[in-house]
Specification:
Split_barrel_FMN-bd; oxidoreductase; Flavin reductase family protein; 4 helices; NADH-dep_flavin_reductase; Pnp Oxidase, Chain A; Flavin_Rdtase-like_dom; single chain
């Protein structure tokens, strides 16, 4: 069966950190599968690996926060993509604050939004979380920075089990 191989590599998508809080637990992971998916109403979908610690917390959360990493934030990508919340408290290593409904907002990230989880649907080894924005960053007058892309982190070894 053919795979997406070169097609997926050519996309070189933006990388995100998605955070969640529920039941007294916090979690966050590096995500490469995400996209706006509706104009009216505004909606965004993020795909979380079912093997990932964050997936379990996100399934209980009412809101998720989606952070767009800047190219110079590879260290955040390494922390949230190369470590697992099963073994490491990632939030002890970064500055953050509780956002809407307690969803963690990473202080170092300028571009983010928190979305209400409208639906969760299967997609193979990932599940899609359909989000409606309820809160977003105010990046001010600073010019946008280039986002961190898949090509910048392709060499990371995932922290969660395969």
């Amino acid at each position: 069966m053919p795979d997406l191989g070169d097609f997926a590599t050519a996309l070189d998508d933006t990388m995100y950190v998605v955070t969640a809080a529920a039941g007294g637990r916090r979690a966050g992971c590096l995500v490469g599968f995400a996209s706006p998916c509706s104009i009216r109403p505004e909606r965004f979908v993020v795909w979380l690996s079912t093997a990932n610690h964050t997936h379990g917390v996100a399934r209980e959360a009412r809101h998720l926060t989606v952070h767009v990493l800047a190219r110079e934030q590879r260290a955040l990508a390494e922390l949230f993509g190369g470590e697992t919340g099963d073994r490491v408290d990632k939030f002890a290593r970064v500055a953050w604050r509780p956002g809407h409904d307690g969803s963690p907002v990473l202080s170092e990230v300028r571009v983010w939004f928190t979305g209400r989880v409208e639906a969760v649907f299967p997609g193979g080894d990932h599940e899609g979380f359909l989000l409606t924005p309820v809160e977003q960053a105010d990046p001010g007058d600073e010019p946008p920075t280039a986002p961190l892309r898949y090509g910048d982190v392709r060499d990371l070894t995932p922290g969660h089990p395969a």
